[in-house]
Design brief:
- By secondary structure, this protein is of the alpha+beta class.
- The chain is built from five helices and three strands; from the N terminus they run H-H-E-H-H-E-E-H.
- Helix 1 packs antiparallel against helix 4.
- The longest helix has 16 residues.
């Protein structure tokens, strides 16, 4: 995990919205997509950026992938920020 990847992923309002949804419950791409007026390729792009930053993970269940928040990364980022601002 790098902070630059994390902050880049968090900088987009659509990705922030995806994280807000996943904060409530795990969801498939189809369920997530119902909340946004974007194409499926765009949604896939946003999900890939969030996965690359390790902010979400995907678990294959049959033919679908269920996405969930990776809370450990948020904990790492919080620790890094606290450590940075303590100095």
């Amino acid at each position: 995990m790098t902070l630059s990847k994390t902050f880049n992923a968090l900088s987009d309002p659509t990705r922030q919205g995806i994280l807000e949804l996943l904060k409530k419950k795990d969801m498939t791409a189809g369920e997530i997509g119902k909340h946004f007026n974007i194409t499926l390729p765009s949604l896939s792009h946003h999900l890939n950026i969030l996965k690359t930053a390790d902010l979400i993970s995907g678990l294959r269940q049959g033919q679908t992938i269920v996405y969930s928040l990776n809370l450990s990364v948020f904990e790492e980022v919080s620790k890094s920020l606290i450590k940075f601002f303590k100095k």
